[in-house]
Specification:
globular, single chain, 3 domains, 11 helices, seven-stranded mixed beta sheet, Jelly Rolls, 562 residues, seven-stranded antiparallel beta sheet, alpha+beta, FAD/NAD(P)-binding domain
């Protein structure tokens, strides 16, 4: 056995979408960060081990941008065959690219050392290397979903459903209980050009008729989320018990589809089945503020809003698969979007504990809308950015300059509802041929410049100006109807590609006072949000689009400089 020690600024526990985005955001803003993750691959519920698509806010133009969109677009570019091994490697690549980020995979946090109400260090075990890792940090961000640091540190947390009266909510039961939404083992199927038989396992359940699971969609395009258990058990300590039962159900459902009635799957085969359940709910931290159903319905217009949700309040019955009342979930309406405050990610009683993901400080009712992965991802990016700013400002994370934080997030292409990004003073001093690209709004048709072949966007200055950075935001087809990866694999896949609206090739020209032409040429862009570091002194700047990934129009939300 050996022990390695680390002294860092931020230690992130959990490498799901929340923890990964938290760690990357902090590292990009100069914070020395260690990310501890107990699995061999990153992404949590989105990884190859669980394979849930990254869902987020409903509603027009509400797709989450920032780091999570960067990852999805990178996946479409690198992974045209839609292989989960490549998706895993895209996430891994994003983490490994950050020089301020140390990544510890296959490493489980198992202990914490306290100094009063502060966490001094955590201890983790890396089984495949027979190594203990002890990490001392200024801040600890628990993005583990199950809130592993709650029991280890004495942090306040909740488990289960509050009573209606506690927060004057209508969704919860009259009496508080320890019931939650459950967990699911998913499976994926692939279409072939020939008939494929399936022989069921002797230990799996048998479902001979449609009455075996009424009101459960079991068509090829379904992701089988309703194969769910654990809400009436302990969603932490009974995880393996749930897995055993879920696998019996999964194989039984596939046997039913293949061998009991016509379900249109004669030519389909079982591609993959998950042996690691994907969780929806377990421990939730108690933070500086607890977001509740009333906040959701009032649109969450908090002064310290740093992220947003917009999934319905999708409240799964604790009985899951064995719920007999019809559809296993109730979709309570929620605004699209509604805001989430920084305060719900900061522990109420542990001074240097913060958190992001499904374990933030929300009631069960609010969680039913905030728990989905794209929401968790932007919460993570907001938290990592907030910690980096707190360290820079020399203050506690709860005391950061919130307007500055909001502007930083929007500058990093994170949308914050009801807020507008400040345009750079240099861009505002110039004359611009397309005012819409410098209005600080980067979604919605009304905020998009649309050009044709031969068109350009031009800035002119009254005198030579020093330009250090160019900023661009392209149209990423924000309302595309597909996730990061498919739920099943038909013979011909027509979706899950790079948005055709993205600009692929462009040229940026700068003209100096003596007429010299400075040129930056990009031939294979595949991102929505792009920055370029330059060192130019110019009297004119031109953006010239040359090609897209499939459409004729050139579509640009932002082009400016600083």
């Amino acid at each position: 056995m050996r022990t390695l020690t680390y002294q860092t600024e931020l230690c992130v526990i959990g490498g799901g979408m929340a923890g990964l985005c938290c760690a990357i955001a902090a590292a990009r803003h100069g914070t020395k960060t260690v990310l501890i993750h107990d699995r061999p691959v990153l992404g949590g519920n989105a990884s190859s081990e669980i394979r849930m698509g990254i869902g987020g806010a409903h509603g027009k133009d509400n797709r989450e941008s920032g780091i999570v969109e960067e990852m999805e677009l990178e996946n479409f570019y690198q992974n045209p065959s839609l292989r989960y091994a490549i998706w895993d490697s895209v996430l891994y690549e994003k983490a490994m690219a950050e020089e301020n980020l140390t990544l510890l995979l296959n490493t489980s946090c198992l202990d914490a050392t306290m100094d009063g109400n502060r966490i001094k260090s955590v201890k983790a075990w890396q089984s495949n290397a027979e190594t203990f890792h002890v990490v001392t940090a200024t801040y600890f961000a628990d993005c583990s979903g199950d809130s592993i640091l709650a029991d280890l540190t004495g942090a306040e947390y909740r488990y289960g459903r509050e009573a209606k009266a506690e927060y004057n909510e209508t969704i919860p039961p009259d009496v508080a209980d320890k019931k939650t939404m459950g967990m699911s083992c998913l499976f994926q199927i692939r279409e072939t050009d020939h008939k494929v038989p399936f022989t069921p396992h002797s230990w799996a359940y048998s479902y001979p008729d449609e009455d075996s699971f009424p009101a459960r969609n079991h068509t090829p395009a379904c992701n089988f989320w309703w194969i769910e258990l654990g809400g009436e058990w302990d969603c932490i300590h009974d995880t393996d018990k749930c897995r055993e039962e879920l696998l019996k159900i999964c194989y039984g459902v596939w046997d039913h589809m293949k061998n009991h009635g016509d379900h249109g799957v004669d030519n389909w085969e079982l591609e993959w089945i998950g042996f690691l359940p994907g969780k929806r709910e377990s421990r939730r931290y108690v933070g500086k503020y607890v977001v509740n159903q009333n906040d959701v319905e009032a649109e969450g217009r908090f002064e310290d809003i740093v992220a947003y949700a917009g999934w319905t309040m999708d409240d799964h019955f604790p009985e899951g698969f064995y719920y007999e009342g019809g559809h296993p979930s109730i979709y309570h309406p929620a605004p699209q979007p509604w805001g989430l405050p920084l305060r719900c990610m900061i522990s109420k009683n542990i001074e240097n504990l913060v958190f992001a993901g499904r374990n933030i400080s929300v009631t069960h009712a609010a969680l039913s809308s905030s728990r989905v992965m794209a929401t968790c991802a932007i919460l993570g990016q907001a938290l990592g950015t907030a910690v980096a700013q707190a360290l820079e400002e020399g203050c506690h994370v709860s005391d950061v300059n919130v307007p500055r934080l909001q502007q930083t997030l929007m500058a990093d292409d994170c949308y914050i509802p009801w807020h507008q990004r400040e345009v750079s003073p240099l861009a505002l001093r110039a004359k611009c041929s397309a005012e819409v690209v410098r209005n600080g709004k980067e979604r919605g048709e009304e905020n998009c410049w649309v050009g044709q072949k031969g068109d350009s966007i031009c800035y002119t200055f009254d005198k030579p100006e020093a330009v250090k950075e160019l900023r661009l935001v392209f149209d990423n087809d924000m309302n595309r109807p597909y996730h990061n990866m498919p739920f099943c694999y038909p013979l011909v896949e027509k979706e899950f590609h790079l948005p055709k609206t993205l600009i692929k090739e462009y040229r940026i020209e700068g003209v100096t006072a003596n007429g010299e032409l400075l040129t930056l040429h990009v031939s294979d862009n595949h991102q929505r949000f792009v920055t370029h570091a330059v060192d130019w002194e110019v009297t004119e700047l031109r953006f010239i689009p040359l090609a897209t990934h499939g459409v004729e129009d050139f579509r640009v939300f932002n082009f400016e400089m600083k």
